[in-house]
Design brief:
By secondary structure, this protein is an alpha/beta fold. The chain folds into 2 domains: about 210 residues, Spore Coat Polysaccharide Biosynthesis Protein SpsA, Chain A, CATH 3.90.550; about 90 residues, no CATH class. The chain is built from 14 helices and 9 strands. Strands 1, 2, 3, 4, 5, 6, 7, 8 and 9 form a 9-stranded mixed beta sheet that branches. It is elongated and about 70 Å long.
Protein backbone atom coordinates (compact mmCIF):
# COMPACT_ATOMS: atom_id res chain seq x y z
CA UNK A 1 0.00 0.00 0.00
CA UNK A 2 1.49 3.34 -1.02
CA UNK A 3 1.87 5.99 1.69
CA UNK A 4 2.23 9.00 -0.59
CA UNK A 5 -1.06 10.22 -2.08
CA UNK A 6 -1.32 9.91 -5.86
CA UNK A 7 -1.27 13.04 -7.97
CA UNK A 8 -4.59 12.18 -9.61
CA UNK A 9 -7.74 10.34 -8.57
CA UNK A 10 -9.65 9.04 -11.59
CA UNK A 11 -13.25 8.89 -10.38
CA UNK A 12 -15.58 6.51 -12.21
CA UNK A 13 -19.05 5.54 -10.94
CA UNK A 14 -20.41 2.27 -12.33
CA UNK A 15 -23.99 1.06 -12.43
CA UNK A 16 -24.75 -1.92 -14.67
CA UNK A 17 -22.06 -0.83 -17.09
CA UNK A 18 -20.77 -4.23 -18.21
CA UNK A 19 -21.21 -3.56 -21.93
CA UNK A 20 -18.43 -0.98 -22.31
CA UNK A 21 -16.68 -1.29 -18.94
CA UNK A 22 -13.55 -3.14 -20.03
CA UNK A 23 -12.82 -0.54 -22.71
CA UNK A 24 -13.18 2.26 -20.18
CA UNK A 25 -10.95 0.57 -17.58
CA UNK A 26 -8.30 -0.36 -20.14
CA UNK A 27 -8.15 3.21 -21.41
CA UNK A 28 -7.27 4.48 -17.93
CA UNK A 29 -4.81 1.74 -17.04
CA UNK A 30 -2.99 2.35 -20.34
CA UNK A 31 -2.40 6.06 -19.68
CA UNK A 32 1.12 7.38 -20.21
CA UNK A 33 0.79 9.18 -16.87
CA UNK A 34 0.92 6.54 -14.14
CA UNK A 35 0.78 8.36 -10.78
CA UNK A 36 -2.93 7.92 -10.14
CA UNK A 37 -5.47 5.92 -8.20
CA UNK A 38 -8.43 4.58 -10.14
CA UNK A 39 -11.38 5.03 -7.80
CA UNK A 40 -14.26 2.91 -9.11
CA UNK A 41 -17.50 3.10 -7.14
CA UNK A 42 -19.96 0.30 -7.81
CA UNK A 43 -23.41 1.80 -7.27
CA UNK A 44 -25.31 -1.42 -6.62
CA UNK A 45 -24.82 -3.04 -10.04
CA UNK A 46 -26.82 -6.20 -10.71
CA UNK A 47 -24.98 -7.25 -13.88
CA UNK A 48 -21.39 -8.50 -14.26
CA UNK A 49 -19.79 -5.10 -13.66
CA UNK A 50 -18.15 -6.10 -10.37
CA UNK A 51 -16.87 -9.34 -11.84
CA UNK A 52 -15.25 -7.41 -14.69
CA UNK A 53 -13.63 -4.90 -12.33
CA UNK A 54 -12.31 -7.61 -10.03
CA UNK A 55 -10.72 -9.42 -12.97
CA UNK A 56 -8.07 -6.66 -13.05
CA UNK A 57 -5.09 -7.05 -10.73
CA UNK A 58 -3.73 -3.53 -11.11
CA UNK A 59 -3.01 -2.11 -7.65
CA UNK A 60 -4.04 1.39 -8.76
CA UNK A 61 -7.68 0.25 -8.88
CA UNK A 62 -9.56 1.07 -5.68
CA UNK A 63 -13.03 -0.49 -5.73
CA UNK A 64 -15.72 0.78 -3.36
CA UNK A 65 -19.22 -0.64 -3.11
CA UNK A 66 -22.38 1.30 -2.30
CA UNK A 67 -24.66 -0.86 -0.17
CA UNK A 68 -27.66 0.49 -2.07
CA UNK A 69 -28.07 2.29 -5.37
CA UNK A 70 -27.29 5.89 -4.34
CA UNK A 71 -27.55 7.27 -7.90
CA UNK A 72 -24.95 9.38 -9.67
CA UNK A 73 -24.81 12.61 -7.65
CA UNK A 74 -24.46 10.93 -4.25
CA UNK A 75 -21.90 8.51 -5.69
CA UNK A 76 -19.81 11.32 -7.16
CA UNK A 77 -19.89 13.21 -3.86
CA UNK A 78 -18.82 10.08 -2.04
CA UNK A 79 -15.92 9.80 -4.47
CA UNK A 80 -14.89 13.40 -3.85
CA UNK A 81 -14.87 12.72 -0.08
CA UNK A 82 -12.59 9.69 -0.29
CA UNK A 83 -10.39 10.80 -3.22
CA UNK A 84 -6.70 11.10 -2.29
CA UNK A 85 -5.34 12.84 -5.38
CA UNK A 86 -4.57 16.52 -5.74
CA UNK A 87 -6.64 16.42 -8.92
CA UNK A 88 -9.83 14.54 -9.72
CA UNK A 89 -10.28 13.31 -13.28
CA UNK A 90 -13.83 12.29 -14.16
CA UNK A 91 -14.47 9.19 -16.20
CA UNK A 92 -17.65 7.43 -17.27
CA UNK A 93 -17.93 3.67 -17.63
CA UNK A 94 -18.88 3.85 -21.31
CA UNK A 95 -16.25 6.31 -22.55
CA UNK A 96 -12.62 5.95 -23.62
CA UNK A 97 -9.76 8.20 -22.49
CA UNK A 98 -7.00 8.52 -25.05
CA UNK A 99 -3.51 7.52 -23.77
CA UNK A 100 -2.16 11.04 -23.17
CA UNK A 101 -5.28 12.48 -21.55
CA UNK A 102 -4.12 12.46 -17.92
CA UNK A 103 -0.59 13.59 -18.77
CA UNK A 104 -1.69 16.58 -20.83
CA UNK A 105 -4.35 17.74 -18.39
CA UNK A 106 -1.98 17.29 -15.43
CA UNK A 107 0.77 19.28 -17.17
CA UNK A 108 -1.64 22.10 -18.03
CA UNK A 109 -3.03 22.42 -14.50
CA UNK A 110 0.46 22.31 -13.03
CA UNK A 111 1.53 25.12 -15.33
CA UNK A 112 -1.64 27.22 -14.84
CA UNK A 113 -2.34 27.53 -11.13
CA UNK A 114 -5.31 29.88 -11.63
CA UNK A 115 -7.23 27.25 -13.62
CA UNK A 116 -9.27 24.93 -11.41
CA UNK A 117 -11.42 23.08 -13.96
CA UNK A 118 -10.05 21.74 -17.24
CA UNK A 119 -11.97 19.92 -19.94
CA UNK A 120 -10.92 18.95 -23.45
CA UNK A 121 -12.25 18.39 -26.93
CA UNK A 122 -14.11 15.11 -27.40
CA UNK A 123 -14.91 12.86 -30.33
CA UNK A 124 -18.35 11.27 -30.32
CA UNK A 125 -18.61 7.52 -30.81
CA UNK A 126 -21.66 5.31 -31.11
CA UNK A 127 -22.55 1.99 -29.48
CA UNK A 128 -20.14 0.12 -31.77
CA UNK A 129 -17.24 2.55 -31.27
CA UNK A 130 -17.57 4.12 -34.71
CA UNK A 131 -16.27 7.68 -34.52
CA UNK A 132 -18.37 10.64 -35.50
CA UNK A 133 -18.04 14.39 -35.02
CA UNK A 134 -15.52 16.27 -32.91
CA UNK A 135 -16.81 18.70 -30.29
CA UNK A 136 -14.54 21.53 -29.22
CA UNK A 137 -15.39 24.04 -26.51
CA UNK A 138 -14.05 27.52 -25.61
CA UNK A 139 -10.68 27.66 -23.89
CA UNK A 140 -10.55 31.23 -22.54
CA UNK A 141 -12.18 31.56 -19.12
CA UNK A 142 -14.12 34.74 -19.88
CA UNK A 143 -15.70 33.37 -23.04
CA UNK A 144 -16.30 30.03 -21.34
CA UNK A 145 -18.20 31.69 -18.50
CA UNK A 146 -20.19 33.75 -21.03
CA UNK A 147 -21.06 30.55 -22.91
CA UNK A 148 -22.53 29.03 -19.74
CA UNK A 149 -25.57 31.29 -20.20
CA UNK A 150 -26.43 29.49 -23.44
CA UNK A 151 -25.22 25.89 -23.10
CA UNK A 152 -22.89 23.68 -21.08
CA UNK A 153 -19.43 24.28 -22.62
CA UNK A 154 -17.52 21.62 -20.69
CA UNK A 155 -17.95 17.87 -21.29
CA UNK A 156 -18.32 16.36 -17.82
CA UNK A 157 -16.42 13.07 -18.42
CA UNK A 158 -13.51 15.01 -19.91
CA UNK A 159 -12.83 17.10 -16.83
CA UNK A 160 -9.84 17.21 -14.52
CA UNK A 161 -10.30 19.54 -11.52
CA UNK A 162 -8.58 20.51 -8.30
CA UNK A 163 -10.01 18.36 -5.52
CA UNK A 164 -9.84 21.04 -2.81
CA UNK A 165 -11.84 23.51 -4.91
CA UNK A 166 -14.61 21.01 -5.65
CA UNK A 167 -14.73 19.87 -2.04
CA UNK A 168 -14.87 23.45 -0.71
CA UNK A 169 -17.74 24.18 -3.13
CA UNK A 170 -19.74 21.34 -1.58
CA UNK A 171 -19.47 19.02 -4.56
CA UNK A 172 -22.47 18.33 -6.75
CA UNK A 173 -25.91 19.53 -5.62
CA UNK A 174 -28.56 16.86 -5.30
CA UNK A 175 -31.25 19.35 -6.35
CA UNK A 176 -29.68 19.65 -9.81
CA UNK A 177 -30.56 16.21 -11.11
CA UNK A 178 -29.10 15.44 -14.57
CA UNK A 179 -27.47 18.91 -14.74
CA UNK A 180 -25.25 18.57 -11.68
CA UNK A 181 -22.13 19.29 -13.74
CA UNK A 182 -23.60 22.40 -15.40
CA UNK A 183 -24.48 23.82 -11.99
CA UNK A 184 -21.04 22.98 -10.58
CA UNK A 185 -19.19 24.70 -13.44
CA UNK A 186 -21.14 27.89 -12.80
CA UNK A 187 -20.42 27.85 -9.07
CA UNK A 188 -16.73 27.09 -9.62
CA UNK A 189 -16.47 29.84 -12.27
CA UNK A 190 -16.99 32.32 -9.43
CA UNK A 191 -13.98 30.93 -7.54
CA UNK A 192 -11.49 29.80 -10.18
CA UNK A 193 -10.79 29.90 -13.89
CA UNK A 194 -12.20 27.34 -16.32
CA UNK A 195 -10.54 26.13 -19.50
CA UNK A 196 -10.67 23.46 -22.22
CA UNK A 197 -7.81 21.89 -24.13
CA UNK A 198 -8.50 21.95 -27.87
CA UNK A 199 -7.03 18.51 -28.43
CA UNK A 200 -9.32 15.47 -28.51
CA UNK A 201 -8.43 13.42 -25.42
CA UNK A 202 -11.71 11.56 -24.84
CA UNK A 203 -14.04 9.42 -26.94
CA UNK A 204 -17.53 10.22 -25.67
CA UNK A 205 -20.08 7.51 -26.30
CA UNK A 206 -23.59 8.41 -27.39
CA UNK A 207 -26.24 5.71 -27.17
CA UNK A 208 -29.87 5.14 -26.25
CA UNK A 209 -29.13 4.96 -22.51
CA UNK A 210 -27.52 8.39 -22.17
CA UNK A 211 -29.21 10.45 -19.46
CA UNK A 212 -30.03 13.26 -21.87
CA UNK A 213 -32.17 10.77 -23.80
CA UNK A 214 -33.65 8.65 -21.01
CA UNK A 215 -34.55 11.69 -18.86
CA UNK A 216 -34.89 14.30 -21.57
CA UNK A 217 -37.80 16.34 -20.16
CA UNK A 218 -36.33 16.50 -16.66
CA UNK A 219 -32.92 17.35 -18.10
CA UNK A 220 -34.36 20.27 -20.07
CA UNK A 221 -36.39 21.63 -17.15
CA UNK A 222 -33.41 21.50 -14.79
CA UNK A 223 -31.22 23.09 -17.45
CA UNK A 224 -33.63 26.02 -17.45
CA UNK A 225 -33.41 26.17 -13.65
CA UNK A 226 -29.61 26.35 -13.77
CA UNK A 227 -29.63 29.12 -16.40
CA UNK A 228 -32.26 31.05 -14.46
CA UNK A 229 -30.17 30.78 -11.30
CA UNK A 230 -27.02 31.91 -13.13
CA UNK A 231 -28.78 34.99 -14.46
CA UNK A 232 -30.25 35.82 -11.07
CA UNK A 233 -26.81 35.71 -9.47
CA UNK A 234 -25.05 37.48 -12.35
CA UNK A 235 -27.54 40.25 -13.11
CA UNK A 236 -29.20 40.40 -9.69
CA UNK A 237 -32.64 40.17 -11.28
CA UNK A 238 -35.17 37.49 -12.00
CA UNK A 239 -35.45 36.25 -15.56
CA UNK A 240 -38.61 34.42 -16.59
CA UNK A 241 -38.53 30.78 -17.61
CA UNK A 242 -40.01 31.87 -20.95
CA UNK A 243 -36.97 34.05 -21.67
CA UNK A 244 -34.63 31.31 -20.43
CA UNK A 245 -36.27 28.92 -22.87
CA UNK A 246 -35.76 31.49 -25.65
CA UNK A 247 -32.09 31.97 -24.86
CA UNK A 248 -31.49 28.21 -24.71
CA UNK A 249 -33.33 27.59 -28.00
CA UNK A 250 -31.82 30.65 -29.66
CA UNK A 251 -35.27 31.76 -30.81
CA UNK A 252 -38.68 32.86 -29.55
CA UNK A 253 -42.13 31.73 -30.52
CA UNK A 254 -43.91 35.05 -29.97
CA UNK A 255 -43.05 38.59 -31.04
CA UNK A 256 -43.46 39.89 -27.48
CA UNK A 257 -40.31 38.11 -26.34
CA UNK A 258 -37.93 39.35 -29.02
CA UNK A 259 -36.88 42.72 -27.66
CA UNK A 260 -36.73 41.47 -24.05
CA UNK A 261 -34.50 38.63 -25.27
CA UNK A 262 -32.27 41.03 -27.20
CA UNK A 263 -32.05 43.25 -24.12
CA UNK A 264 -31.14 40.27 -21.95
CA UNK A 265 -28.33 39.24 -24.30
CA UNK A 266 -27.02 42.81 -24.24
CA UNK A 267 -27.18 43.00 -20.43
CA UNK A 268 -25.31 39.70 -20.06
CA UNK A 269 -22.61 40.80 -22.48
CA UNK A 270 -22.29 44.26 -20.93
CA UNK A 271 -21.94 42.82 -17.42
CA UNK A 272 -19.45 40.22 -18.68
CA UNK A 273 -17.09 42.72 -20.29
CA UNK A 274 -17.13 44.90 -17.18
CA UNK A 275 -15.08 42.19 -15.45
CA UNK A 276 -11.63 43.72 -15.13
CA UNK A 277 -9.99 40.31 -14.79
CA UNK A 278 -10.75 39.50 -18.44
CA UNK A 279 -8.31 40.22 -21.24
CA UNK A 280 -9.13 42.57 -24.10
CA UNK A 281 -9.33 39.54 -26.42
CA UNK A 282 -11.84 37.81 -24.14
CA UNK A 283 -14.02 40.93 -23.98
CA UNK A 284 -13.90 41.32 -27.75
CA UNK A 285 -14.89 37.67 -28.27
CA UNK A 286 -17.87 38.08 -25.94
CA UNK A 287 -19.05 41.23 -27.74
CA UNK A 288 -18.74 39.59 -31.15
CA UNK A 289 -20.67 36.55 -30.02
CA UNK A 290 -23.40 38.70 -28.46
CA UNK A 291 -23.76 40.73 -31.67
CA UNK A 292 -23.93 37.52 -33.68
CA UNK A 293 -26.74 36.30 -31.43
CA UNK A 294 -28.62 39.58 -31.87
CA UNK A 295 -28.14 39.33 -35.64
CA UNK A 296 -29.53 35.79 -35.57
CA UNK A 297 -32.65 37.08 -33.82
CA UNK A 298 -33.21 39.61 -36.58
CA UNK A 299 -32.59 37.07 -39.34
CA UNK A 300 -34.99 34.51 -37.88
CA UNK A 301 -37.94 36.79 -37.25
CA UNK A 302 -37.12 40.13 -38.85
CA UNK A 303 -40.72 41.09 -39.47
CA UNK A 304 -41.52 40.90 -35.77
CA UNK A 305 -38.47 42.69 -34.43
CA UNK A 306 -37.93 46.36 -33.79
CA UNK A 307 -34.79 46.12 -35.90
CA UNK A 308 -33.41 49.56 -35.12
CA UNK A 309 -33.77 49.01 -31.37
CA UNK A 310 -31.94 45.69 -31.56
CA UNK A 311 -29.23 47.18 -33.77
CA UNK A 312 -28.85 49.96 -31.21
CA UNK A 313 -27.95 47.36 -28.61
CA UNK A 314 -25.54 45.71 -31.03
CA UNK A 315 -23.81 49.04 -31.80
CA UNK A 316 -22.90 49.43 -28.14
CA UNK A 317 -21.09 46.10 -28.18
CA UNK A 318 -19.28 46.04 -31.55
CA UNK A 319 -19.65 48.96 -33.94
CA UNK A 320 -17.76 47.47 -36.88
CA UNK A 321 -19.49 44.08 -36.81
CA UNK A 322 -22.90 45.76 -36.51
CA UNK A 323 -22.17 47.90 -39.57
CA UNK A 324 -21.42 44.73 -41.52
CA UNK A 325 -24.72 43.26 -40.34
CA UNK A 326 -26.58 46.36 -41.46
CA UNK A 327 -25.05 46.09 -44.95
CA UNK A 328 -26.22 42.50 -45.17
CA UNK A 329 -29.72 43.53 -44.06
CA UNK A 330 -29.79 46.25 -46.72
CA UNK A 331 -28.77 43.75 -49.40
CA UNK A 332 -31.57 41.48 -48.22
CA UNK A 333 -33.95 44.47 -48.38
CA UNK A 334 -35.12 43.93 -44.81
CA UNK A 335 -35.47 47.73 -44.46
CA UNK A 336 -37.60 47.89 -47.61
CA UNK A 337 -40.82 48.56 -45.77
Amino acid sequence: MRNRPPKITVLMPVYNGEKYLSEAIDSILNQTFTDFEFLIINDGSTDDSVKIIQSYEDTRIRLIHNETNLKLIATLNKGIEVARGEYIARMDADDISLPDRLAKQFDFLNANSKVGVLGCAVKLIDHSGSQDQIMRFPSAHGFLRWSLFFYCPIAHPSVMMRRVLVSDAGGYRSTMLHVEDYDLWWRLSQKTRLSNLQEVLLLLRKHEYNTTKTHFDEHVQNTFRVIQLMMWEFLNKEVSIELVRCIWNGRCETSDDFYPLATLIYQLANASVNDNTLSAAEKQAICKDAVSRLSALINRRARYVNILAVLGLAFRLDFVLTCRIIMKLIRRKIFKN
